[in-house]
């Protein structure tokens, strides 16, 4: 992995009146030393010409799905390997809908599906279109997947009405793009070991001990670390989630298998973020054959390996983050775990609230630092929690290498 990700972006321009601001946005980016490749939709050509954009960027403008102007490779794959950010300004309601539903309708929507880098959209449209439940639902879905949405400005619109929907000024959009590029630099030398999901402990071939964890929180952390340029090793228990693009994924089932995978990966990591929820107990003598129900009226259990404690004993410069799920005494329990396991930070959350904890797409957590700090986050999507967590970890400094 290079020490510094490329300061190159793709700028998608869709067919709205706000497209007239694209040339000034390109100027702002080029002045900041960013290489820009413009992607122009068919409808956007009614507002700004390819010749203007090519003159300003110094690069061929991509207009069609099979435009091979950048070389022999299919361009949406070749370009996706190089850029640090995909920005779309203006992003029309139709473009947002195609992104949210995964519809590869044209080059821009196809390219969106191919990029592993951060994506920023700057919506621009009539106020009623902006406020329509369909548009808001599409935006919510994109946000949950980590897309950065730059809220439109309020003011006079091209239709003569006044309200939300104006494309932000080029300087504001450029500033957000540069922030994403800089954020991507911050983890480019880090290797982040993330654990996610539950584990299973078999009573017999047909019955298991497990918990409701889905792995969403750990996968969100892995995806956010990848977007910031880190190398990611994801040790995942059973989960139906798609593997994060670019991560080294190790699939495990039991707690012992998770322990083995984590300890093997530990020497290669600079950060350990243990978001998994491994089973606390396993049967002392599991049966190799399916047994009668009456056999399980009483269970003979033993504790599973304490992976966090073992990490604490064997770490050599890594910074370690734990998660602690609880109910009424969840903060006190998290503080004990923070001290006993010698963690740098712990994420505490309640699992008895309907909009947080296991299985939910949102979470409400408290970040507790080894220095005694405490930061309560509001209800956020798990992707947003992951972003806030990594922001907090950056303040701890880089781990020893």
Summarize the structure in words.
With 401 residues, the protein is α/β, with parallel strands linked by helices. 32% of the residues lie in helices and 23% in strands. It has 13 helices and 21 strands. Strands 12-11-8-13-16-17-19-20 form an 8-stranded mixed beta sheet, sandwiched between helices. Strand 9 and strand 10 form a beta hairpin.
List keywords for this structure.
disordered N terminus; single chain; Rossmann fold; 401 residues; eight-stranded mixed sheet
How many strands, which pairing sense, and closed or not: the largest β-sheet?
8 strands, mixed
Main β-sheet, spatial strand arrangement: 12-11-8-13-16-17-19-20
Task: Indicate the radius of gyration in whole angstroms.
Answer: 24 Å
CA-CA gap between termini: 15 Å
Uncertain runs with pLDDT below 50, 5 residues or more?
1-5
CATH topology of the largest domain: Rossmann fold
From the spread of the alpha carbons, the general shape counts as: elongated
Approximate helicity band = 25-40%
**CATH level 4 superfamily of the largest domain:** CoaB-like
Helix run count: 13
Strand content: 15-25%
Number of domains: 2
Map the helices and strands.
Layout: E1 8-13, H1 22-31, E2 35-40, H2 50-57, H3 75-80, E3 85-91, H4 93-101, H5 107-114, E4 119-123, H6 127-131, H7 133-144, E5 148-149, E6 153-156, E7 162-166, H8 170-185, E8 191-196, E9 201-204, E10 207-209, H9 216-227, E11 231-236, E12 248-251, H10 255-265, E13 271-274, E14 281-283, E15 301-303, H11 307-314, E16 319-326, H12 330-340, E17 345-350, E18 362-363, E19 365-369, E20 374-376, E21 380-381, H13 382-394
Helix pairs in contact: 1-2, 1-8, 4-7, 9-13, 10-11
């Amino acid at each position: 992995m290079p020490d510094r990700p490329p300061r190159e972006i793709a700028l998608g321009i869709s067919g709205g009146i706000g497209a007239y601001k694209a040339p000034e946005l390109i100027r702002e980016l080029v002045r900041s030393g960013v290489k820009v490749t413009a992607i122009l939709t068919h409808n956007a050509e009614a507002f700004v010409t390819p010749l203007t954009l090519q003159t300003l960027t110094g690069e061929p403008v991509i207009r069609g799905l099979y435009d091979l102007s950048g070389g022999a490779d299919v361009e949406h794959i070749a370009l996706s390997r190089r850029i640090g950010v995909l920005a779309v300004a203006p992003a029309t309601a139709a473009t947002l809908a195609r992104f949210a539903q995964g519809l590869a309708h044209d080059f821009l929507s196809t390219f969106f599906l191919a990029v592993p880098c951060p994506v920023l959209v700057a919506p621009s449209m009539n106020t009623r279109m902006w406020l329509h439940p369909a548009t808001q639902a599409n935006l919510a879905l994109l946000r949950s997947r980590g897309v950065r949405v730059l809220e439109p400005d309020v003011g006079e619109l091209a239709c003569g009405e006044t309200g939300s929907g104006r494309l932000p000024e080029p300087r504001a959009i450029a500033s957000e793009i540069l922030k994403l590029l800089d954020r991507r630099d911050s983890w480019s030398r880090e290797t982040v070991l993330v654990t996610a999901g539950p584990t299973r402990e078999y009573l017999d071939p047909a019955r298991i001990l497990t918990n409701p964890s889905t792995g969403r929180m750990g996968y969100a952390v892995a995806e956010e670390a990848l977007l910031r340029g880190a190398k990611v090793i994801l040790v995942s228990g059973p989960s139906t989630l798609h593997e994060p693009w670019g991560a080294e994924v190790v699939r495990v089932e039991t707690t012992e298998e998770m322990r083995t995978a984590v300890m093997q990966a530990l020497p290669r990591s600079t950060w350990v973020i243990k978001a998994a929820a491994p089973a606390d107990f396993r049967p002392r003598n599991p049966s190799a054959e399916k047994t009668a129900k009456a056999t399980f009226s009483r269970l003979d259990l033993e504790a599973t390996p304490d992976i966090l404690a073992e990490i604490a004993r064997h770490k050599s410069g890594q910074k370690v983050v734990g998660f602690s799920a609880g109910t009424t005494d969840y903060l006190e329990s998290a503080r004990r775990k923070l001290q006993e396991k010698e963690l740098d930070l712990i994420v505490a959350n309640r699992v008895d609230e309907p909009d947080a904890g296991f299985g939910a797409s949102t979470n409400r957590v408290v970040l507790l630092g080894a220095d005694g700090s405490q930061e309560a986050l509001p209800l956020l999507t798990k992707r947003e929690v992951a972003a806030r967590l990594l922001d907090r970890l950056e303040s701890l400094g880089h781990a020893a290498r």
